[in-house]
Amino acid sequence: MRRDALRLFFQRLVLATLPLTAGCSTQVDGGNPDLASTGVIVLDGGFPDGGNCSDYCAAPERCIITPTDAGTTLIQCYTDHTGRRPATLRPAALAAGESELGRLFAQMAHLEAASVHAFQTLAGELRAYGATDRLVAAALRAADDEVRHTRLMSGLARQFGGQPVAPEVDPPASRSLEEIALENAVEGCVRESFGALVATWQAHAACDPTVRRAMMVIAADETRHAELAWSIAGWSGTRLDGTARARVAEARQAALSHLRLETTREPGAELVSRAGVPSTAHAQTLLAAFTLEVERRAAA
Ligand SMILES: [Fe+2]
Ligand SMILES: [Fe+2]
Fold first, then answer.
1. Ligand nearest to the CA of 149
2. pLDDT reading at 34 higher than 80
3. What's the pTM value of the predicted model, to 2 decimals?
4. Angstrom distance (rounded) from CA 250 to CA 147
5. Which numbered ligand comes closest to the C-alpha of 119?
6. Which of 24, 78, 102, 113 pairs with 164 at a CA distance of 20 to 30 A?
């Protein structure tokens, strides 16, 4: 398989899907963002004991719970995919801020910073399980990329009035090769890979030139991380038995189902226009083609 196969696939898919009439006006409709449409839910009082994200968000394990000084609680559903969550990432309490763009980029900066830990841990695990020097070096390079992404997204968050928050990550526990392969299937082959595709879209569709430039860098790096995820999947697949491989395939399918749920929420108008976040219809078109590509690669 060509090393730049995913990059070409993402580029062609984005250019084929991007509306020819797309343009950037200086006026964005809906100056006062509707919190519900941007995935932020406001609760009167605190987060209920025993409650969890799935009570409020389409993606069961992803939300940010933020108590406010006014006694309400903001629940922000995660819709960002441009990074790898380490297994020991603690739930975040991000400052909500007024601007939906600021919230988006603060959320992205948080996940990018968490991804540094994920790749550092992965590099150590690959080495411990006897992976090639090339795979280990690629994971270490990805960790360095994520440092740069954190800087870029933190800068955009501040530019739009958001407040980036450093992730809290507990020390990694020792893991079996199957556990590593499961995480790689979900976080790498599905989520980070789809994040690379969405970043490619944003690099073309964002009206804000600083966002476009940042997403160009991120799209190129994340596509390389996506290729790394598939290389790790190939390497680990030859070392797992059939039952373990079936569990990895099941986890990959479940992650695709989660993405389908997550792309049912319509992003706010400013996110679509200035940040180039794909509308629900565009995200679903991208995801349908992406799913076929994931299935093709998994079967190869
Ligand atoms: Fe990444
Ligand atoms: Fe990243």
1. 2
2. no
3. 0.85
4. 31
5. 1
6. 24
